[in-house]
Amino acid sequence: TTPDEENEPEIRLPANMHGNEHIGTEITLYFLRHLLTNYASNPQVQDLIDNKEIWILPTINPDGKVANTRRNANNVDLNRDYGYFWDGWGGSPGPCSQIENKVMVQHLDENDISLEYNYHSVAQYVNYPWDYHYADPPDSQHIIDLSQVYADSANLTVTNGYDWYQVTGCIQDYTIGTSGALAWTIETLEPSSSSAIDQICYNNRDALMDICERAGWGIEGVVKDSVTSNPLYARVEFMNPDRVDIYTDPNLGDFHKMIEQGTYDLRISANEYAPKT
Ligand SMILES: [Zn+2]
User: What's the 27 CA to ligand 1 centre distance in angstroms?
Assistant: First the structure.
């Protein structure tokens, strides 16, 4: 068990996976500074830091950032390389082929992420899944409602990803499809002046403050061995109504599924254990 691991919903904010889309780095660093400098004076900041686990990743394409290129140093578009309905777009030679994405996948496996926003800057959208397929994702009305919360604060427009344009192999679809987290792609305009940088950072900070407190609103629990109380790496199936499965955090056995208010049948299973419904 890692010493800093607590039973909390986890939020992940990866930015700049397209190395020439720089404002996401500023948005995430600004949000980080906001959290670090206002803990003592701002009860909402205090609540977030005390009750959520927040992963802030200002660039997940460092070579592309330095070179100011969309793709990484291998000339692969990292947002076409993820392994959920991967289709070889963007120069990707295989699903999750790039080291930048392998570490993100490992991070997703090792943690129970509830909420993810990844940042881009070629449009002004809160882009919700799916990107690869025209069908609405499970729990789509809940996802659209949460999209609107972010959009209202950040002064953006809500769009379905596929409706805007189809993408395969993106991080958003991978995160929601394989981990059951809720995940969005945020698109903001790349700023044209320094004052525009500040305004974009303020808007997205306000949106993140509004939405991050909702991380984990839904169903949560801890899965343990009933004899030894050791935490288990378990699958949590949402059987009725059917929703995307989630997995526990192997360190503590905790899970946090953001989901609409209602009644759900769950089935919990782990290797070498009888499932429980
Ligand atoms: Zn992008």
Answer: 14
Beta-carbon-side half-sphere exposure of residue 17 (alpha carbons within 13 Å): 27
How remote is the CA of residue 154 from the centroid of ligand 1, in Å?
18
| Ligand 1: centre distance to CA 122 (Å) | 6
> Tens of pLDDT along 112-121?
999 999 999 9
Fold (CATH) for 10-212:
Aminopeptidase (3.40.630)
Residue 77: its pLDDT value, please? 98
pLDDT digits (tens, 9 = 90+) for 170-189: 999 999 999 999 999 999 98
Q: What residues of the chain score a pLDDT lower than 50?
A: 1
Find the 44 Cα to ligand 1 centroid distance in Å.
Answer: 30
Q: What is the domain partition of the chain in residue ranges? A: 10-212, 218-269
* Structure confidence at residue 3 (pLDDT): 58
Q: How far is the CA of 210 from the centre of ligand 1 (A)?
A: 24
Ligand 1 centroid distance, CA of 99 (Å): 18
Of the candidates 211, 222, 272, 215, the residue with the CA atom closest to the CA atom of residue 250:
222
- Residue 172: how many other CB atoms lie within 10 Å: 27
ipTM comes to 0.99
Cite the DSSP H helix spans in the chain. 23-37, 43-51, 62-67, 99-110, 140-154, 161-164, 171-179, 194-212
